[in-house]
Amino acid sequence: MAKCAVCGKGVHFGNNVSHSHRRSNHIWKSNIRKVKVNDNGTHIRKYVCTACLRSGKVERA
Asked: Which end of the chain offers a freer environment for a tag, N or C, measured as fewer CB atoms within 10 Å?
């Protein structure tokens, strides 16, 4: 579910690095919103990241 329907952006994996340089796993989730989208004249709910919403790649219904 946590994946953009337009650009495919999803979760990112990496490491938290402490001051003593010990590493632990960390997951960064993308800012995904469920919005109504105008898709060829029909209104469909899709999961879209906020970067696509701001840039105008998606026409909201």
From this structure: N
